Amino acid sequence: xxxxxxxxxxxxxxxxxxxxxxxxxxxxxxxxxxxxxxxxxxxxxxxxxxxxxxxxxxxxxxxxxxxxxxxxxxxxxxxxxxxxxxxxxxxxxxxxxxxxxxxxxxxxxxxxxxxxxxxxxxxxxxxxxxxxxxxxxxxxxxxxxxxxxxxxxxxxxxxxxxxxxxxxxxxxxxxxxxxxxxxxxxxxxxxxxxxxxxxxxxxxxxxxxxxxxxxxxxxxxxxxxxxxxxxxxxxxxxxxxxxxxxxxxxxxxxxxxxxxxxxxxxxxxxxxxxxxxxxxxxxxxxxxxxxxxxxxxxxxxxxxxxxxxxxxxxxxxxxxxxxxxxxxxxxxxxxxxxxxxx
Length: 342
Ligand code: NAD
Ligand code: UFG
Hints:
Blueprint: E1 2-6, H1 11-22, E2 27-30, H2 39-48, E3 53-55, H3 62-71, E4 74-79, H4 86-91, H5 93-113, E5 118-124, H6 147-165, E6 170-176, E7 178-180, H7 199-207, E8 214-217, E9 229-230, E10 232-234, H8 235-251, E11 254-260, E12 266-267, H9 268-279, E13 285-288, E14 297-298, H10 303-309, H11 317-330
Parallel strand pairs: 1-2, 1-4, 2-3, 4-5, 5-6, 6-11, 7-10, 8-13, 9-14
Antiparallel strand pairs: 9-12
The chain binds nicotinamide-adenine-dinucleotide and uridine-5'-diphosphate-4-deoxy-4-fluoro-alpha-D-galactose.
């Protein structure tokens, strides 16, 4: 019996694969490297000392996916494969709907063909749109403000319909808040293409000297210091949440959404200070205009995951910053380790 991990070479997938292997699961990874590098797979093996089957395929290719299911005894799927850049999704909505929605449908069709009906899906706190209140509960109003967010919302709806039509399905919809940090080895971590869109990789690239200064997007939000507040969660805690969700979908059918967050919000300036402590230097920044589409404050109520999955985050902000910095400083160019600093 094996767990299929789609998008397992990516940031969240690679960390989850490490935890799955450490916990003794047999895994099979599929990835098309559209946003990752083969090097991450080597490092998963180095960290764990364990091997796995890997298929360099696109989940849109149904025949290739069928081969994966016929060559391996798949018991459940953790589905990370997807495109995730909000700005790009506004520029290229069809690319996002095709990859994220059609990809998910094809995966589920093949699962049905092979009688595999347990899946853990990567959703996002983006399905809460502009939250009405914080902390955010799973039964809050759902809506999305951009095509990327709509792919997550639509996928959730599709999963709910699948369960209605066939109560053998067992589905966990994991709504991630803001994953940061890296494995404590510093061997795997987040490796964005080009200039990072997200706060932590931007800060670490300022730390390593690839970028000059952080732009803080607005200081006029209704928050303690006026800068945006988010629920940052250590990627290893997030990975462990997948193991708990997997146990749940193995136990009983159903479809449930869970917030994976810490329940605590930090502002951009608090993150800068926390990182400076881990880094041991200054991160220059300047306040600029708000970023279009940003919200002021977003953090989880993670009680449901604690009650139903027996999962909660244990790693704090200092550990998140320390581990992000270890990864970035050991790998200034991410997985492209042979290149000079650019
Ligand atoms: P990532 O880009 O690092 O990983 C996604 C992986 O999927 C990549 O390795 C990519 O090559 C692969 N992939 C994409 N489309 C594919 C396809 N059609 N066929 C095969 N492989 C494909 O992203 P991540 O940060 O690890 O995110 C994983 C999932 O979690 C995504 O679905 C993302 O939308 C979701 N998510 C991420 C965050 C975050 O902040 N990182 C927040 C909420 C939700
Ligand atoms: N920020 C800056 N400067 C930067 C980058 C970010 O000030 O260079 C600020 C943002 O304005 C925000 C905070 O830092 O206040 C966090 O921004 P991120 O881009 O790191 O994260 P977001 O919360 O905006 O978005 C993330 C994912 C989305 C996902 C969303 C909800 O990138 O895909 O969380 O889960 F939809």
